[in-house]
Fold M14 family metallopeptidase.
Amino acid sequence: MRKIYTLILSIFVSAMTFAQQSPDDFLGYKAGERFTPHHRVVDYFEHLASTLPNVQIVYYGETVEHRPLFVAIVSSPENMQNLDQIRTDNLKRTGMLEGNPSTKVAINWMQYNVHGNEAVATEAAMMTFWEAADPNNPQTKEWLRNQILIVDPCANPDGKDRYTVWYNQKGNKLLQPDPQSTEHYEPWPGGRPNHYLMDLNRDWAWQTQAETEQRIKLYHEWMPHLFVDYHEQGINEPFYFAPAAKPIHEQVSPFQHEFQEIYGKNTAEKFDANNWQYFTKERFDLLYPAYGDTYPMYNGAIGMTIEKGGSGRAGLGMLNALGDTVTLEERIIHQHTAGISAIEVTSKNAERLADEFATYFKSNSNNPKAKYKSFVIKGEDQSDRLDALLKLLDKNKIGYGFAGNRSGLRGLDYNTGKSTSFSTTEKDIIVNAYQPKSVLTQILFEPEAILEDSITYDITSWALPYAYGLQAYALESKLEAAKPFEKPAFELNSVNGTPLAYIAPWNATKHAKFLGALLKTGIRTRVSEYPFEINGESYDAGTLLIMRNGNQYVADYDRTVVDLANKFEIKLSTSNSSYVDKGKDFGSSDVKIIKAPKVALVGGQGTSSLNFGEIWYYFEQELDYPLTILEADMLGRFDLSKYDVLILPSGNYLNGDNFTKVMDWVKAGGKAIAVEGAVGMFSDKEGFSLSRFDTEEEKKAQQKIDMESQKTERLGSFQDRERMGISTSAAGAIFEVKMDQTHPLSFGVGENYYTLKNNGRRYAYLTSGVNVGTIQSLDQYRFGFIGNKLKPQMNQTMVYGVEYQGRGGIVYLVDNPMFRSFWESGKLIMANAIFFVGQ
């Protein structure tokens, strides 16, 4: 009997031990010995949720590569039983739900590994969550009494596993800290971005990526009070934590400033006690709205970035510049300590966090620092572009309504950058700051952020009217909507008879999606290269014509065209005649048949992985159009005659025989599209008219200016050199670009396009070719930072152009029209380059 009792007791003890497993016990290795693949991370948190009653897993989506996205939630048993009430009470503080909260519990959300190769973060997440959830930890009860802890252990599982699998293949059995060893050199594209090689830490406001969009849906269900985002930086840096560096956006509240100080001092005490080095108030600012610290900050939370020295190069351990080995174990412990500090300060300040959060939403619409309080977006003749913007506002929970007929209004005209009078119609939209998402609204629409320091970590201007190519106005006063917005039901196209031609517009991304779908289906489509009038209606150049002639053998032709138009919500017109009232008849040679192009995109070593990813994403997730990907260093092996279009993302990788091969293909009828840095591969070469300067005298004059600038920098103080250096840089400066509307590259774009300039490259007008988009005067500068030495160089420059070579040509896109996939208006320029130029 005693033996049976002993056996039962042994089984019970074993079960209890299993139920309280740390990451080391569960995974079978100590933290820092290896990187954990995502499926094992999932297993561990599932284990905790199944063995601890106060732990809950919430799956909020999956990645492109079908890895699960989830958060783990832990709090006291009492709070977990009341979890939904706590959550909805918090939404009442924001005004997103009506009513008065009956609970006061702080919500602390900690996100790890948004950059995949900053892979220490997920390891630290498991350690930190376990310490908070461990029932044998005497501090747990106090920590969780008044706080909900939400941990997202890996925000970028695809990137994280790309890095983990690679490193586990390359790592040595014995620790090899030699920086020259192969395990310290990730191959292109590295593990930092997601599947589409996009930077998820710059996508929060735009939500172009599946991971971000799914996560922010969950974020809006909680609206946390504290949001801590864990990263790594270069191996020679120690550790960074809040307070943040300047510039800090003027909309950041006094309490948000104060709490960053509270956290910073608490964390500093822990690091000081261990003799660990760190820095604060440097480099990592709070300005650009799509970061994992700024987006929460502009939503009332205390957003904070954490950065440990190491990153992808460090692996399990690597020597830094001092000759010290920075190990994975050290990096984990440091991030874990920063995480425990966040849990502590949340617990100690829980009631105040909840109260200040409520105050933020009560007072933010009356912030005197915010210049513009209302924004009007014109709806007439730009409804399809407007639809795209409204979808973004919906994702961000920003409210809007119809303007109604009003006159005598005055505000800043985004197009001119000047104050002007205007009126509104029933189709116009009003977005004002008098709503729960007041601060975020003002920041996304502000023409230009006020910079207290011009050294910034990212771009300085992102105003949505420019990004979406919309005519809009910013007002300094409150302007209420005349009536709530109610999207008019799309009036479905129907098959009605057998029209000679279907006519479709061309001025928004969804029109390019429609064209791609038509071409994939095998429906012959044409484009009118001239404006025309027919049946009393006017149509712009770029209008699509789907003619019965040429499609008479397509099965279910009418039904297919109509169904595709309805899918994309595109209103079709019809005509039973090719004879137009004005312009070119439909049978004219200037109404071109659009060949379904076979497109290849160059990637691999030497190309910008981010720009490559933007284009790849555009084809797969927006155009849904076939794309071949070619490795840059293997171009010599490929038969380029298989392709009509070759897209060259930013970078410098065509040289020698590969350059010659590409040019032979162009001259034989191919079309190359060079983006941003790739444009330079064709500059100042014999046989090309692309050049930085018009004349040799102009080149020498600029060289003289540059030399004088360098002398000034050398004579300046050492500490001012970084500040002097930005005088020749651009950080998201918006310029009006004059477009030649007669050229296919500009179809649907309009007379003026607003480019986001993020580099100092300048090119003179093409002497042989077409200067489609130009900056003809410095009056075309609108907003955003550009250095005082660089800005004058932008005068009389080519931004978008086409140079013909033999039977083909090169499209030069000096500024990236696909920037982070959120610069919506630029996507039409890329579509024009792909489908129309050179047809």
